[in-house]
Amino acid sequence: MATLTEEDGKWLLTCHIVASDYNWPFCEISINFFNEQEQPTGQGIDLSSFTSVYVKARYINQEHNSLRFQLRNFNPLYGQFDDQGTWKYVGIEFWPQRSPQANEIPLKSLQVASWWIAEQKLPIKYAVPEFTNVMMLELSTGNNIQPGQYVIELEHIKFTGKYFTNNQVLLFLISLWACSAVGFLFFNLSWSRKQLIETKSKAEELRQLNQLLNVKTKELKDQAERDPLTGALNRAGIKTIFTKELEVLSVMFIDIDYFKSVNDRYGHTVGDEVLKAFAKLISNNCRFTDFLARWGGEEFLLVCPNTSLKDAYDLAQALRNIISHHQWIQDIQLTASFGVAQQGDESPTAFIERADKALYDAKVRGRNQVVISEY
Ligand SMILES: Nc1nc2c(ncn2[C@@H]2O[C@H](COP(=O)(O)OP(=O)(O)OP(=O)(O)O)[C@@H](O)[C@H]2O)c(=O)[nH]1
């Protein structure tokens, strides 16, 4: 006979173990995790994520006896819900502590009752503790209890466990590491791509800037070396030609005759147009390797590399002829005088002066003619 009472928030189980033929008398508190009244579903509670259970219980009057803690797990693979004898007995017998601490029972120390395995005739694979569908919890007197009166005080039963299993933590850490690695790779990739795009656009900017600078440099060079009115080289521009070492170099000064009268009669603007047309006419009728420079006013210098004095003379005569027969604006009649020279063993200045002197002679001799300066 047994009674269960509550006192100061503690449960007291008073048991009278009597002598009988039954070999394994016991007295127990049994807590059901399923509702017997409702439609039975075979659904208990899953305690598999817990690692320990703390049982604060003790004998009040008979201290030298053991207690049995037991869980009853139902598994439909080998048990029947309506036959509690087929629910697996997983338990342990322990000697309750005298100290105020609860008795800690690691769940892994719970064993399947060997008599139950033998009785159920189950395959060995089912002889392992299971906590996935616990239907009942039992706290009872231990083995070999002698007849007499026993009072068991139960203060609490607490299950504890890790919120995550070791495997879950490991899986989480591996996933975190993998995500970080993927994230880092992705970040690196997009950063590199961004850098590449930036570098490309910087390179493009630099290329365009360079192009602009080249254009500007050419413009500045042109401004510095070309005559703005006719587009012919100026004195500075033609200077560089003389620094090149050429074996045969001839030059000719070309000066429009009586140009002042053109200005006087038709005005300065017409004079400018005539000068532009004059430079164009000469350029169009000499070799592309020749260089035309405006020496000043209406005076031009044509530099002819790799040209003998004879060839330069012939060219001058041809140009003179073309000029005199050209159709100029306002039907202006135009002629020009030429002073031709071939470079000898002399400085460029002396060489130019000889050609200039020949031009002067052509003017003196009556204009519209070619005069050669012999070295
Ligand atoms: N329209 C125009 N006239 C210029 C320019 N540069 C010089 N002249 C003119 O060219 C004329 C040159 O006159 P001159 O040196 O007397 O020579 P010319 O009248 O050609 O006579 P000769 O050379 O002796 O045959 C001057 O009237 C200058 O004003 C220019 O850029 N534009």
From TrEMBL:
Membrane-crossing segments per the record: 169-191
Keyword Cell inner membrane tagged: no
Record-given protein name: diguanylate cyclase
Species whose genome carries this gene: Bowmanella denitrificans
A Pfam family assignment: GGDEF
Sequence ranges assigned to domain GGDEF in this UniProt record: 247-375
Catalytically driven reaction(s): 2 GTP = 3',3'-c-di-GMP + 2 diphosphate
E.C. numbers: 2.7.7.65
Keywords: Membrane, Transmembrane, Transmembrane helix
